[in-house]
Design a protein that fits this description.
This protein has 11 helices and 12 strands. With 321 residues, it is of the alpha/beta class. Strands 2, 3, 4, 7, 8, 9, 10, 11 and 12 form a 9-stranded mixed beta sheet that branches. Strands 1-5-6 form a 3-stranded mixed beta sheet. Helix 1 packs across helix 2, helix 7 packs across helix 10 and helix 8 packs antiparallel against helix 9. It is globular, with a radius of gyration of 22 Å.
């Protein structure tokens, strides 16, 4: 059984579970977001050390923590169904314990009884998270997926699905499976403790990008998306420019993303995860998702050192249909 143990606990983020959880919850508490009326489909979040990019990443993950979409739907269903039942029961004068028990049993069986909804603390119950990020250490063609098994952080183990677990990927030549490529890479690992804090009972599918055909890969990954799937692209923005220059460059990148202009991003954007962002933009175009900027800062805003900075942003995608 493959287990990818944490490689960056104690450097990029705390290795003490209690301190790590308290840090993430503090970031989430400090993040203020405008409520969405529709379910998030994808996120772009940064992947630097938590003391630098954690406060900005929290804006993206806060979107997942802050909603009760399904619970609200279930609650509305329960009230409407209850009212219809009571009206009928009164009209027919058949309101009895046996009828009530049959109604409750059916509601629970169909998982539509609001008290039985499996939502806690306003979290989504996404079943599958597709993580996509750049490889900072290897050059290769296509995507590199993690082997099936577990990814471990100080907050516990998360089941990771491999290429063979997903029928859509089994015959895809553009995807290779490699623990060697994933082991030294930080960009996906640093997102997982955030996910463990805001979600429960999910599985991950981990991809690192190489040289690839954006449209072909977008078609493949898009086939994995259903109502219980979230795509998460891990990317920082510009690197090691002065504060003022970084702000200008990052605005160009962010504007291209928000305009869903892949060509402009390719030509003028600066982001270490640009390839993954372009894949997401292609998926978003095919599925009619819209992006929304949640927060953008750079390391100079966090540390006060504005001589050489790294840019960060959190962007959410939602279904515009």
């Amino acid at each position: 059984m493959y287990i990818r143990q944490s490689q960056f606990a104690g450097t990029f983020y705390p290795d003490n579970p209690q301190i790590l959880k308290e840090m993430i919850e503090d970031f989430l508490h400090q993040a203020t977001i405008e409520k969405l009326k529709v379910q998030p489909k994808a996120l772009i979040v940064p992947h630097a050390g938590y003391i630098y990019s954690g406060p900005i990443a929290a804006y993206g993950f806060k979107i997942l923590e802050d909603k009760l979409f399904r619970a609200k739907r279930e609650k509305r269903f329960c009230r409407a169904e209850r009212d219809r039942f009571l009206f009928r029961a009164k009209r027919e004068k058949r309101f009895c314990r046996a009828e009530r028990d049959r109604f409750l049993f059916r509601a629970k069986r169909e998982k539509r009884f609001c008290r039985s909804a499996s939502w806690r603390r306003g979290r989504f119950l996404y079943k599958k998270i597709i993580l996509l990020g750049p490889s900072h250490h290897f050059s290769f063609q296509g995507l590199a997926s993690s082997p099936a098994g577990y990814w471990e952080t100080p907050l516990g183990k998360i089941t990771c699905l491999g290429k063979k677990d997903l029928k859509e990927l089994k015959k895809t030549k553009e995807i290779i499976e490699s623990s060697e490529i994933h082991e030294p890479e930080h960009c996906l690992e640093v997102e997982i403790p955030f996910l463990q804090t805001v979600l429960k009972e999910f599985k991950i599918v981990c991809f690192l990008t190489g040289e690839l055909n954006t449209k072909a890969i977008a078609k493949v990954l898009g086939s994995l998306v259903d109502e219980e799937t979230l795509i998460l692209v891990s990317s920082d923005l510009s690197h090691y420019y002065s504060y003022e220059e970084a702000q200008k460059l990052d605005k160009v990148t962010i504007d291209a993303i928000l305009d869903n202009d892949i060509k402009r991003l390719e030509e003028f954007g600066e982001a270490c995860g640009k390839t993954g962002i372009e894949v997401l933009m292609e998926i978003a175009k095919n599925k009619h998702w819209q992006p929304k900027l949640l927060k953008a800062l750079n390391s100079g805003d966090i540390t006060g050192d504005k001589s050489q900075v790294v840019g960060y942003s959190s962007i959410v995608y939602y279904d515009s249909n």
